[in-house]
């Protein structure tokens, strides 16, 4: 006997077995939905800050004209933005760790066996990136600047290293050629990595320039580069949608399984 439950416009099959029901969730879609939480909350926080907290959100010590809030101002200072962002990060943290675990299994299936230790490093970088994101989200710079700064630096370093290592492993260490969907995913990963690194370098330049010369609008360019860094990072993680095409998460009374 089998039936299905409807979620949104899609049906997720429920298969009856002797030990109970098992919910089958397409893992690629779960990974995509997981990253969508911080993406949508980020967009909300920036727009809300511009509409309702523009003067305070764009203020800096230079007291010159700016037009965009920095990420820290948009997500960590005002309400309801701060609460929306924290809720989204808290909800997405568990599934993000599940995706990291699934990626290690994916690497074991497609990479040379002797390089599996680097696959483990990539997955731990992913985990540490997620934990650092949680830290800098729930410990604001106003509450504890030293800890917030360390979490931010850890997040940036691990996210960049994770993206670089992932691209290297999937391009140079596969034991079999990728299918068309995996090849597309890897191509997009490289494009996102290039834009991410370039935007990060530009953000650093404009941040230093703003603090050195206090020119109108320069901090807004820095903020825009920040946005691109964050959005390309999220999009990189969203490529899991293609990497896990055809894979399913099985949820039952005995636990969670992958197929």
UniProtKB/TrEMBL annotation:
GO terms for biological process: GPI anchor biosynthetic process. InterPro entries: CWH43_N, PGAP2. It comes from the Eukaryota. Residues 28-245 form the CWH43-like N-terminal domain. GO terms for cellular component: endoplasmic reticulum membrane; Golgi membrane. The keyword Ribonucleoprotein does not apply. It holds the Pfam family Frag1. It is found in: Golgi apparatus membrane. Keywords: Golgi apparatus, GPI-anchor biosynthesis, Membrane, Transmembrane, Transmembrane helix. Coiled coil: none annotated. It is a multi-pass membrane protein. The chain crosses the membrane at residues 30-51, 111-140, 152-170, 190-208, 220-242. Belongs to the PGAP2 family. This is CWH43-like N-terminal domain-containing protein. It comes from Diploptera punctata.
């Amino acid at each position: 006997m089998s039936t299905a439950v409807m979620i949104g416009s899609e049906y997720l099959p429920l298969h009856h077995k002797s030990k109970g029901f098992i919910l089958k969730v397409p893992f690629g879609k779960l990974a995509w939905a997981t990253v969508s939480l911080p993406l949508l909350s980020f967009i909300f926080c920036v727009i809300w800050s511009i509409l309702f907290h523009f003067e305070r959100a764009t203020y800096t010590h230079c007291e010159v004209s700016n037009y965009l809030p920095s990420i820290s101002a948009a997500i960590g200072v005002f309400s309801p933005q701060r609460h929306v962002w924290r809720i989204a990060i808290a909800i997405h943290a568990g599934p993000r760790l599940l995706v990291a675990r699934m990626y290690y299994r994916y690497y074991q299936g497609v990479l040379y066996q002797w390089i599996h230790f680097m696959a483990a490093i990539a997955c731990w970088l992913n985990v540490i990136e997620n934990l650092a994101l949680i830290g800098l989200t729930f410990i604001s710079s106003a509450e504890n600047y030293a800890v917030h700064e360390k979490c931010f630096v850890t997040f940036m370093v691990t996210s960049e290293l994770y993206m670089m290592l992932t691209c290297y492993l999937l391009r140079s260490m596969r034991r079999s050629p990728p299918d068309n969907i995996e090849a597309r995913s890897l191509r997009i990963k490289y494009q996102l990595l290039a834009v991410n690194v370039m935007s990060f370098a530009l953000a650093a330049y404009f941040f230093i320039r703003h603090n050195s010369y206090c020119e109108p609008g320069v901090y807004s360019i820095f903020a825009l580069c920040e946005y691109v860094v964050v959005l390309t990072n999220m999009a990189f993680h969203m490529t899991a949608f293609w990497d896990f095409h055809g894979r399913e998460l099985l949820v039952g009374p005995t636990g969670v399984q992958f197929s």
